[in-house]
Amino acid sequence: MKKVLLPLAAMIIVCNLMMVSSCSKSNEADLAADTTGTGGSSCDTVNMKYATNVQPIISSYCYGCHGNGSASGGISLDSYASLKTQADNGNLIAVITHAAGYPAMPQGAAKLSDCNINIIKDWINRGTQNN
Ligand code: HEC
């Protein structure tokens, strides 16, 4: 009996360790990439600016495919002008809020936090300024 159970127990422990480590890794990545250091109640979404607040989010989550020489879907987002184009035509909010009929962004990754989405929305609501 013990001979069968021991390897099984070892496997379960290894599995759990793997799950715990991958879980904490993704949490760390989320925290590191949450450029405002917020999450939860302390999310500041008032008077959001392009350079200070919005560009760091886009850089963290989108430049891998839409910046630094990459333009997935023919779209680059690594300048104020190119991001404004996608904001003005409605695509930016549609893709990050996972609106029906649009490809969900960031592609193949978790949806942006509500905080980050609200930061981008505030910037757009204030006229999508180059500030
Ligand atoms: C892993 C690569 C990848 C990442 C990361 C990524 N995208 Fe995309 N994006 C794509 C691809 C591929 C397409 C074209 C998909 C299609 O047309 O179905 C696309 C298309 C788009 C479009 C055009 C949608 C349309 O309807 O024409 C926008 C806007 C966009 N992405 C914004 C973003 C934003 C904002 C982020 C970050 C929050 C982001 N993407 C992150 C790969 C990516």
TrEMBL record:
Residues 62-106 form the Cytochrome C Planctomycete-type domain. Gene3D superfamilies: Cytochrome c-like domain. Keywords: Signal. It comes from the Bacteria. Residues 1-26 form the signal peptide. SUPFAM superfamilies: Cytochrome c. PROSITE patterns: PROKAR_LIPOPROTEIN. This is Cytochrome C Planctomycete-type domain-containing protein.
